[in-house]
Amino acid sequence: MMNIRKRRLVALVALFGSVALSVSACAPPAAPPPYASDAAPMAAPAMPESAARAPAQSAAGETVDQALQPRLIIRTADLTIVVKDTQAQMDALAKLAEEFGGFVVSSSTSRVRDNALQGYITLRVDAARFDEAMNRIRSLAVEVRNENVRGEDVTAEYVDLDARLKNLEATEAQLQKILEQAVTTEDVLAVYRELTEIRGRIEQIKGRMKYLSQSAALATISVTLIPDALAQPLQVGGWRPEGVAREAFEALIATLQGLASLFIWLVIVVLPVLLILAIPIVLLVLLIRRARRSKKAEAAKTS
C-alpha cells in the first residue's frame, strides 16, 4: 500500500511539474529594473489596480473581460536642443523631472570646441504628463535641432504574462497540498524541487510585469544640449570658412557651365564651319594627288 501511494504521489508531482513548465516555458526573462540613478534612487511605483485586474485565462478556464485592461504604452523621446547656458538648462531639466513626478536617470557634460560646454541628460517623467513635459523642454531651447518620439504598446505581453502567472500560482497551490500529504523524505524533496522551480518562474514573471508597468507609468526623455555659441557658424578674424566654401562651390559651378557652353558652341557652330572649310581643301588635295599619279604614269610610258 505504501509503495502504491508513493508511486501516485510521484506521478502527481511529475504531472504538475510538466504542466507548469509547459505553461511558463515561453515566459520572457525578467528584465532589470527600468532605470536607476545615484542622485535619485528609483522608488518602484505600486502596481496599478487596473493592471492587477488584467484580463487573462484563469486556471479554471474562465475568461475575464479584456476590456478592463487599460493600454500600456512605453513612451520614449530623444531631443537635441540649442541653449544659451548649458549648465543652467541642465539644472532646469533636473528640476523639471522632479516637478513631473520623475527623476534624473543620468547626466553628463563635456567641453568641446572653444571650451564650450555640451550636456547630455536622461529624465523619467510621469507618462500622463509626457506632452506637457516635452513642451516645457522645448521652451528652454533657443532652437530644437532634432526630435524623435516613440511609443511601444506592451498591453498584449502584459495580459499574456498575467495569464501565465495565474496558472503557475494555481499549480503552486496544488503542489503545496501534495507536499502536506508527503510522507517520506524522498517525496518531500521531489515536491520541494517542483515548488522551487514554480516559485522561480512566478517571481520571474512578476518581475517582468512590474518592469512593464513601471516603464509605462514613467516616460523616458533623453536630451542633448548644444551651447548657442557652438551652434553659430565658425568665424575667425572675420574669415568664415563656410563663406569661402560657398564661393569655391559657386566658382566650380561657373567653370562647369563655361565648359558646357564651350562644348555646345564647338558642336553647333565651330564643327560645321570646320567641315565647310575642310571640303575644298580635301578636294584640292585629291586633285593634286591625281595629277601627280597621271604625270608618273605618262613618264613611265615614255621611258
Biggest sheet, strands in spatial order?
A: 2-3-5-1-4
How much is the average pLDDT? 77
Structural class determined from secondary elements? alpha+beta
Secondary-structure element series: HHEHEEHEHHEHH
Instruction: Tally the beta strands.
Output: 5
Count of alpha/pi helices: 8
Q: List unreliable stretches of 5+ residues.
A: 1-6, 23-66
Report the β-strand fraction as a percent range: 15-25%
What overall geometry do the principal axes of the alpha carbons give? elongated
Write up this protein:
The chain is of the alpha+beta class. It contains eight helices and five strands. Strands 2-3-5-1-4 form a five-stranded mixed β-sheet. Strand 2 (103-111) and strand 3 form a beta hairpin. Helix 1 runs parallel beside helix 6 (185-217) and helix 5 (155-181) packs antiparallel against helix 6 (185-217). The termini are far apart.
Summarize the structure.
Helices cover 58% and strands 17% of the residues. It has helices at residues 2-24, 49-52, 86-99, 130-139, 155-181, 185-217, 228-231, 241-302, and strands spanning 73-83, 103-111, 117-126, 143-153, 218-227.
